[in-house]
Amino acid sequence: MPHNLPQPGDTRFSPGSPQALVRYGQQQLRALVAHLWQHSAFYRAYYSSHGIRAQDLPELTIGDLPFLTKSTLMAHFDTAVTDPRLRKAELEHWLEAHPTPHQAFHKDFVVLTTSGSSGTIGIIVYDRPGWHAMNSIMAPRFPRPAPGRGEKARVAYYPYNDAYS
After folding, report:
1. Contacts of residue 100, Cβ cutoff 8 Å, sequence gap at least 6
2. Taking the domains of the chain in order of start, what are their residue ranges?
3. Each residue's pLDDT tens digit, 131-165
């Protein structure tokens, strides 16, 4: 799915317009669900089994989507993903040899895992724009520099895949 992230100077919404931001989020959600419906056999079947039809997609809200567990998603990984280069067995093998995200899978993807503390190891795959967006979302959550010091805050964010090492 092509990324439609806000760019500098983007006028689709402004920080002072919560309603426009909500509309933008709904549009992005609907575009994502439509993409999944078209390109993922798993999501099409899963949503259909919960009463969602293709004609419902333009009006869906987040509340209309059924809950999906990590174990269900991981059990159907190969039919859930929308890029044919991503296959669970191959990713698991690759993760054993690459415990840090410094090397890209197929040169295009950053691959992480959850710890498996819930009983299921989750494989999380970002394309480059998605990885940059995730980092942009995380950056404001890091601590700010101490007042009056005039320095930049130094923060280390180091994802590590220990689930397969």
Report:
1. 159, 160, 161
2. 1-68, 83-165
3. 888 888 877 777 777 777 666 766 666 565 666 65
